[in-house]
């Protein structure tokens, strides 16, 4: 696990830091990472964000599929 911080929100910092690395990365939706995903980095989604989408869907229309997804995610 690596955590890197920059005061700048420029994508250049992410590109310089990641270089030619091509592993798997859990990250936020910062646009500066997008170029890396096109060059071999695999984006791993965040379960908290995935769960929120199912939660919102269930609240909005009582989706049974969304409810099952919430139970499955809860089991993780």
UniProtKB/TrEMBL annotation:
InterPro entries: Transposase-related, Transposase_IS66_central. This is ISPpu14, transposase Orf3. It comes from the Bacteria. Residues 2-75 form the Transposase IS66 central domain.
